Amino acid sequence: MKKLITMAAAAALLAGFGASAQAQTATYTLDPTHTFVTWEALHFGTSTNRGRFDKKEGKIEIDRAAKTGKIDITIDMASISTGVAPFDNHLKSKDFFDVATHPTARFQATGLSFDGTKVTGVKGTLTMFGKTQPVELKGSRFNCYENPFFKREVCGGDFETTIQRSQWGSTYGLPGIPDNIRLLIQVEAVKQ
């Protein structure tokens, strides 16, 4: 009888360990002070215009053991900032982002690539102007650390891609203002 109880206890312990090993998904909320979506576009082949979106929010789920995850980020398009107010206003107009009609953009992903426990790529969709197109981001410097201020784990990295704005219907100024827009995303998210 004692042997049967010991075996039952060992089985229960192993079952509990297996359940905890499988339940590795962690949820993170974007840290707005360390997350920026920056863009670059050539200006008539002469110089590079740059700007960023200052307001964004979202959640990231990652299971580093299973190498899976989900991302859902919303960007406030009216928060575009180039440092030049008249240029910002033009970008917010119908010529470019038409923020009165399309106030947000949304990135969603369920395909993450890993090298060990580090995220090296993200496949998802970007919705702007009511159109959804596939987007693939290349990641670098992915890292997780214990943040001394939040007293929680923070994960993040740098991600980038180049999109063709015409795929979403943004054609103003083509070809003088190129179709290709480089997106650079600096992201850090706090474990919940």
Explain what this protein looks like in three dimensions.
The structure is a single chain. Helix content is 15%, strand content 54%. The longest helix has 21 residues, at 2-22. The chain has one domain: Lipid/polyisoprenoid-binding, YceI-like (Lipocalin). Strand 2 (36-43) and strand 3 form a beta hairpin. The protein has 192 residues and is α+β, with helices and mostly antiparallel strands. Residues 27-190 form the Lipid/polyisoprenoid-binding YceI-like domain. Residues 1-23 form the signal peptide. It holds the Pfam family YceI.
Summarize the structure.
This protein has 192 residues and is an alpha+beta fold. The protein contains two helices and eleven strands, in the order αββββββαβββββ. The protein has one domain: Lipid/polyisoprenoid-binding, YceI-like (Lipocalin).
Using DSSP, what is the number of strands? 11
CATH architecture: Beta Barrel
What is the mean pLDDT?
Answer: 89
| Major β-sheet strand ordering | 1-4-5-7-8-9-10-11
- Beta content: over 45%
The CATH topology turns out to be Lipocalin
Helix content: 10-25%
Distance between the termini: 44 Å
- The CATH class designation is Mainly Beta
**Regions with pLDDT < 50 over 5+ consecutive residues?**
1-21
InterPro entries: Lipid/polyisoprenoid-bd_YceI (IPR007372), TTHA0802/YceI-like_sf (IPR036761)
Pfam family, one: YceI
Signal peptide: 1-23
Keywords: Signal
